[in-house]
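A note from the maintainers: we've had questions about how concatenated examples are separated. There is no special marker in the raw files; a new sequence line simply starts the next protein. For clarity in this README we add a label.
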Amino acid sequence: MNPKLSRRQFTKAAAASAAFSLIPGRVIGANEKVNVAFIGCGGQGGGDANNILRSKLVNPVALCDVAMGTGHTAGLEKKLPGVPKFKDFRQMFDKMGGEIDACTVAVPDHAHFPISMRAMAEGVHCYVEKPLAHTFQEIELMMAAEKKYKVSCQMGNQGHSGANYHQFKAWKEAGVIKDVTKVTSYMNSGRRWHPWKFDEWQTGEEVPEGLDWDAWLGTKPEHPYSRYLHPGNWRSWYDYGNGAFGDWGPHILDTVHRFCKLGLPNKITAVKREGVRKLIYPMATTIRFDFPARDGEPPCAVTWHDGTANKPEPPAELEADRKLNNNGKVIYGKDLTFMGTSHGSPLRIIPEAKMKEMAKDLPKFEVGSDHYLNFVLGAKGEEETRSPFSVSGPLSQMFCLGVIAQRLGGELEFDRETKRITNNKVADALLEGPPPRKGWEEYYKL
């Protein structure tokens, strides 16, 4: 690739060609099990695999992890003896692509994109951990791929199949939640990078035995191995992770984003940034997203607070003997104020007396399949997934915009039609980020 070619020019050029042949999403018979590959087999990946297996509707056909054969993946390897193992997803699909119906993608944020693009092009249904991808433009391409290849996809914000989802939907449809003009959200738990005193790439460590560092880096800029990157610490760095937004935003703001039809903001403001660094996320931020009137909904301001001491003011309706949790949201509607935490936890109306007063008239709701079963049934064509890329994509893009505001500060103006930042060229370029590493360009072709 021409090193002078910008990511935007590269993406436009790539859209004119195709990296893979078009294979429609796999059709699976009613009595057939879903052949699933688990990509990312330790930590969250191991948990996702165990939950998918619990459905009893799948047949594990491949395991893939850059650290396969180490203690990181030992649990799943022991549970699934004899299943073919790979360290590089490209080799897995080259060898077994025709045998895989669906896959899970539970790897660092920066690696979601190439794996998912390859899988979808193979006609493989995808369960991808949150956030959907690392950059705004990667998400744009993933949404287009989902539509083009007609696959059934699910982002791993597990609460989006829980009580909060069904409650919010029922309350919104019944008019209990209406005319939301303000949302305060917060994630005040400590982060891995908070104790770090440095702001430069850490060097001098050898790559651990069994780890394929080149495969770990994927499409992103090359930096030396460090325990401050793998395992788990990658979320702390702009080059590889999406910080607290990517980690907790999809669990806190998913239902209000969906059912209040927020879409994308037209302005993003860095209200506060503390402990700002060049490569690592700040110690604390307050970011405000402004959404215009849309689809019968009034203008709405959503404010995000992260950092252990950066707590928002509690709502006036909250009883004096109650406090905000570390993670949650307050939703201000026309007539009522709602308070919730994260994942599938249901909302409550505040003050409590108002909730009790309305209890007998509040809509009832039922909770169906969990997030993992919903994905498996989606792959079989028996249910629609609740967090497809068409839904989880704009939600994740909102957080990508928030990350840019965390990184640069100031106020960003965003054109919802062209999907460009119009008042800051540096910020606009970060929608794509740097071009992919040499040898990884094909994944940006649709």
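[label: protein 2]
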Amino acid sequence: MNISIRKHILSNFKDVEKKEIEEAIVESIGDKEELTLPGFGVFFELLWQEADKEMKEEIITNLKRAINKESN
């Protein structure tokens, strides 16, 4: 059985309101379950694809800052 995580995530969130996406993200982070990580990967892929050069630089800067903070 071949399940596409990407397709599953996209179909689950296709027609939801922005608030529902936010709630899913906040809840997943709060649960700290690794099961939700593939969904975040799909969200990040979409974000990255839609970002312009400036936004990509901001994402990278924020990620770098957060990584450094978490590794201390």
